[in-house]
Amino acid sequence: MDTKLQIIEISTPLFQQKGYKGVGVTEIIKACNISKGSFYHHFPNGKEELLIACLKSIDEAITTHMVDIFKRYPTTQEATQAMIDILVNDLEREGRIVVSTFTSIVSEMGSLSEPVREACSDLYLKMQTIYCTKLAEDGFSKENANSIALMMIASIEGAIMLCLTQKSSHPLKIISHELPKILNHRS
Fold first, then answer.
1. Who wins on pLDDT, 138 or 20?
2. CA dist., res. 51 & res. 46, Å (int)
3. CA dist 11 to 15, 65, 151, Å?
4. How many whole angstroms separate alpha carbon 140 and alpha carbon 145?
5. pLDDT tens, 1-34?
6. How many CB atoms are located within 10 Å of the residue 120 CB?
7. What is the rounded distance in angstroms from the CA atom of residue 112 to the CA atom of residue 91?
8. Topology of the domain covering 54-183
9. Count of alpha carbons within 13 Å of 49, Cβ hemisphere only?
């Protein structure tokens, strides 16, 4: 495997588990079994440049995963239910949310740079577009689809954060139960 890709692959879960501030370059170098020179060869601007590369990697994984799920189910409600079920199963089986955990990284955004904030914002906008498209297919007006998509992202991402802090899948299960009530009201 390419060294740069290896650094991204190993660093991504470190950032997801410990956050940006909780992971140092020394820890990354040790985990990747590379020299400091090799690290800076691939990421001359340091840890922040690596974080952006990791966010782009997460972005691709999450959006590909979401698009796949949304293609397999005829309605937003069914697709969202399937996605939440996967999140719950990941948490109960692995003790963490495997696919879409960038929430822990985003929680530190207030103190990070504009390029990192933009990378996270781009991912949220892609997720919202996936929801909006499916909601429009379900017959929601564009305005309602945008509002509901934003609410769904906030609910699911918030539930993920609660699951991680509570070490329980219960918040996602509650969201899974409540979202259908909203999705059954088209206007």
1. 138
2. 9
3. 6, 20, 30
4. 6
5. 699 999 999 998 888 778 788 899 999 999 999 9
6. 20
7. 28
8. Tetracycline Repressor; domain 2 (1.10.357)
9. 10
